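Below is how a single chain appears once it has passed through the pipeline. First comes the sequence as given, then the structure the pipeline wrote out for it. We keep one example in the README because the format questions we get most often are answered faster by looking than by reading.
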Amino acid sequence: MPASVSDTPDLSGLIELSRDPALDLKPVILRVQTDMFVAAPSRDRAMIHAFESLAAGLIPTVDEATAAIVADKLGGCPDLPEAVRAALATRGLDVAPARAPQDQAEADRALAENPGILIGTRVLERLLARARREADLARILLARPDIPAADLAPLWLHAGSDGRRAIGEAVEATAALRPCPQAPRSLASALVERTHARDVTGFIATLGEGLGLPQDYLGAAPDPASRYDLLTLALRAADLREGEAVFVFLTLNDAVARSVERVFSLVTLFRETSRAGARDLLSAILGAPVLERGSQAEHRPFHGPETAKPRAAAATVRPALPSRLRRTI
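Resulting structure:
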């Protein structure tokens, strides 16, 4: 819910105290209200009007140092009322104009950092597409509690262990609703052969071609460590057996094989992710469909409208019985 003047504390008592000539609280009230106005995630009309009334009335009465501090704090604020700017200008203080975003990337980051703005579906799609490549933006979006875990699936590689678990559970909840045909065993055999030969380039190419992944699919990983997490999802989607996946982890890369903890984490990921869930996570991370290399025949329900219905056999025509001649007298 956007910040409103109704959410701010009642300062009427302090304003009454400010009229006491023996106790000057006007600078304190002005600075506190300025800090609250600048820090507000969003400002509605009531809040802007309340700040305008208070600040425009107090600025002519405070000392030069306080007025200068307020002008500096309000610099770049996009919702600064013109009456407040004019009051500061009367005292010879200019307020820096609101800084326009330099480009779309900066505007997207500001939008993601503002918890008071509800992000719509189309805007979220744009933010997620950018966050796949920008780790800072990905961390901001992952930290927002108002975005469902299922919508954050494209950022699975950027998430921590808790975030990955939540995203994985959300994806698994719907992954089984789509058919996931069996992958041909020839793909798994080819991957094992490439691993045995330590042909890393051939292994990556074979895996990508077998699943229909983009040519540079490993570039979706934000760092070298997460590349093997991405490969593990791909191995699960390719329907490798657990023993074959472990062979890949222990053979293809010596740095991974030397770390028992790393191998264990990859095996755990392989075990806990269904093939359909791995397919959907890959599709979300890469922003492209993962092609299945199983049965390519299109399934057509027997009762579908476009299904050719078998014609009923033609009814056997019974031979006409010989007519009996009516005997006439």
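The two ends are 107 Å apart (CA to CA).

See the next section for the split statistics.
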